[in-house]
Amino acid sequence: MSAKKKKKAEAKVKKTTAKKSAATKTRAKKKVASPSKAAPEQSDAAAAQATAGDDDVLLQNWVPVSQAIDWRLSRMAWQSSADVLFADRRVPNRTHDSGALSLRNARILLAWCQEQQAAGSLPETVNVVELGMGTGLHLRLLLDHFQRLCKETEADHYERLQVYATDVSPRLTNMVREQGLFVAHADHVRIGFMNTMTPGMFVDSEGEERVDLRGKMHFCCANYVLDLFPIDVFRRRRVVEEGAETVRWETALVRTWLRNKELFASYTDLTLEQILELSKSEEPAAWAMLAPLYSLMHLEVRLYEVPLAQHPDIAELEHCADRQEAALGADHALLKDGTVVYHSGGALFAVREIAAALAPGGYAITRDVGLTTAELAGVARIHQHFGPTVAAGVNMLQVDALFEGDRSGLGAVCHKPQNDGVNNQAVRLISAAALPETVAVFRTEFDGERIAAIGRAIETAKQEKDPNKAMEIYRLAVLDEPDNWYLLVEAARHALGVAATPDLAIAIVQRGLEVNPGSSPDLWVVHGDAMRAAGNAEGAQVSYENALRTNPRDPSSHYRLAFIAAERGRFQLAFRHIGEALAHDRDGVIRREVLELLDVSLRGQRRFYEAELQRMQSRSDR
After folding, report:
1. Quick check: 391 and 383 in contact, CB under 8 A?
2. Angle at 492 between CA 490 and CA 497, to 5 degrees
3. φ, ψ for residue 241 (rounded to 5)?
4. CA–CA dist 265, 18 (Å, integer)
5. C-alpha separations of 232 from 69, 235, 326, 340, 527 in Å
6. Which of 123, 162, 189, 212 has the most CB atoms around its CB within 10 Å?
7. Is 146 within 8 Å of 106 (Cβ atoms)?
8. How many other CB atoms are found less than 10 A from the CB of residue 241?
9. Is the pLDDT of residue 476 over 60?
10. How far apart are CA 144 and CA 499, in angstroms?
11. What DSSP character marks residue 447?
């Protein structure tokens, strides 16, 4: 390739990369525009396309937010690749898989068993269900803690447990089985499927045996499940016409565009005509083919006036709007243009079904990103993206209102913890009966400030310039949450990188690996780094290989194994790992280090071949 052609090709790649980055950033920007007088006709799709820019392709015309393409792609992603989403960290799971929440839930379950036993109503079999178990680690650690707590209190509660570890993703249920995650609790745990829309209906993932647990669930746990349901946004406006006040409703509608047509080839082999045809299909296989294009999709959002008299949730919308106005006050700035109703319709349906499926005296705990104040719920917004998945904060004011005055018709009660809503985390305990002792423990265990304190401690330690003071902060935090493996990772990193004490780092991270040996490559990477710093190169390599078994796409593990291979002169192996590291370092976190290693390896390979050639020539001359 000539220098001129090479320069032109490099410029094209640079331009494409810049546009990819811009497309990804644009994906996150969604504003609700001013209202139109009437809802748009679907027939305006051709007109919209005709006036669009050359790079814009209309993929889906105006629909309510809950029916946007995003939600369909998200459901498909959870079904087909949930395990990869967690492993690649595109969907955060440290908050509920760290072990800290498991211990809190174990303490609450123990309090419930003790309260039921004191009342003479503890069942022989206690049915425990986790909806949307994800990696399964939260539930496994919960059982570990609960078993230990029962031994400490000399109680037989653990022996009574029948546990249902459930998800809707076959990839996750298979992963949990293959990892043997619940081997230590095999006599108590069944792994299978349960849909949050029909809680209580369990299907075993192996034998497909069905178990009806409706009305029999004593404890149901759902972490970050309700915020995966679609939401809709409405606004109620009071206008005066001819001296009379009239109520008008508007709803947020979205249409989806594909942008940057010249980038299509970077994501798919499909032609534009094929893309448009697939977008009209209802088949999951068709949407799986569109999924790689998600970062090129742009949502246009507008409020349109619509008649809502026949809407199935109109009573709920009216009730929510009334509560918003009462909470904010008539003169509040958020009410200037009307009353926004952020409608978590799917979450409301699901939480009602969960409450209905509880056993008499049973309880459920939900934890989600939530809107816990009228100010938060009074702002028009839609969903957030986590890779190809989407989530939306749950309007907790709606959830709370559902159980006030028995509006649910179930006789259930909803409880908040102390300091609810810190960092937008919302937890609720829903009980089928009065459980004063259990609720008291819940309110303390899920105190928002108490939970946030660990995160603040980690940040304080990272900012502390004195390594000994920082290590003391970590020590106190670990004393409070000894099984929080994420905390242990951070403490070990400090011990290794700042305090320069690899033996201490090894001891700390080994505790983390006892808690979580199979779902965090970070633990194994830090363990390998500490082993290498302590002079154990072979042990370091084993740790990095274990990290890859946890996540074969982990760029840090590939980089470190490439480094070891290059040190040993195994350049072909080093190049393979370098390629994997570059391919999976999506955000370029370690790109500079990997490219430097590539340069060193290329020069090392050249010297190796030159030396080899000299040896061969020397042998021929003899």
Report:
1. yes
2. 95
3. -125, 125
4. 15
5. 14, 10, 21, 11, 46
6. 189
7. yes
8. 8
9. yes
10. 32
11. -
Q: Are 435 and 443 in contact (CB under 8 A)?
A: no
Amino acid type, 289 = M
Q: Considering only CA atoms, which of 308, 465, 433 is closest in space to residue 364?
A: 433
Give ∠ CA 542-544-545 in degrees, rounded to 5.
65
Instruction: Work out the number of other CB atoms within 10 angstroms of the CB of residue 446.
Output: 26
- Cα–Cα distance measured from residue 18 to residue 22, given in angstroms and rounded to the nearest whole number: 6
Q: Measuring CA to CA, which residue among 532, 59, 399, 31 is closest to residue 233?
A: 31
Q: In this structure, are residues 421 and 375 in contact, taking their beta carbons and an 8 Å threshold?
A: no
The CA dihedral of 325, 327, 333, 335, to the nearest 10 degrees, is -10
Is residue 525 within 8 A of residue 557, CB to CB? The reply is yes
The closest of 564, 569, 567 to 547, measured between CA atoms, is 564
Structure confidence by residue, pLDDT tens digits, 186-213? 999 999 999 999 999 999 998 789 999 9
Cα 476 from Cα 487, distance rounded (Å):
11
Alpha carbon distance 93, 426 (integer Å)? 16
Which two tokens mark 4?
A: 């001129």
CB 294 within 8 A of CB 255: no
Helix (H) or strand (E) holding 191: strand 189-193
Q: What is the pLDDT of residue 196?
A: 93
pLDDT tens-digit profile of 584-621? Answer: 998 899 999 999 999 999 999 999 888 888 888 887 66
Report the Cα–Cα distance between both ends of the chain, in Å, rounded.
41
**Tens digits of residue pLDDT in 218-253:** 999 999 999 999 999 999 998 888 788 889 999 999
Spatial contact of 293 and 100, defined as CB atoms under 8 Å apart? no
CA distance 395 to 376: 9
Say if residue 77's pLDDT is above 80: yes
How far from chain centre, in Å, is Cα 226?
Answer: 12
**Residue 249, token pair as written in the block:** 């409703």
> d(Cα 160, Cα 461) in Å, to the nearest integer?
42
Give the whole-angstrom CA distance, residue 44 versus residue 63.
13
Q: Is 154 left (phi over 0), alpha (psi -120 to 50) or beta?
A: left
Give me the residues paired with residue 367 across strands. Answer: 223, 427
Structure tokens at 400: 């709370």
CA gap 580, 560 in Å, rounded: 11
Distance of CA 276 to the CA centre of its chain: 30
- Residue-wise pLDDT for 1-45, tens only, equals 555 544 554 555 444 444 444 444 444 444 455 555 566 665 566
User: Of the candidates 215, 587, 506, 223, which has an alpha carbon nearest to the alpha carbon of residue 369?
Assistant: 223
Between the alpha carbon of residue 288 and those of residues 285, 296, 427, 487, 515, the distances in Å are 5, 15, 33, 37, 35
pLDDT (0 to 100) of residue 239: 87
Count of H-run helices and E-run strands, the chain: 24, 18
pLDDT at 407: 83
Q: For 64-124, what is the HEC assignment? A: EHHHCHHHHHHHHHHHHHHHHHHHCCCCCCHHHHCCHHHHHHHHHHHHHHHHHHHCCCCCC
d(CA 49, CA 57): 7
Nearest Cα to Cα of residue 343 among 321, 360, 364: 321
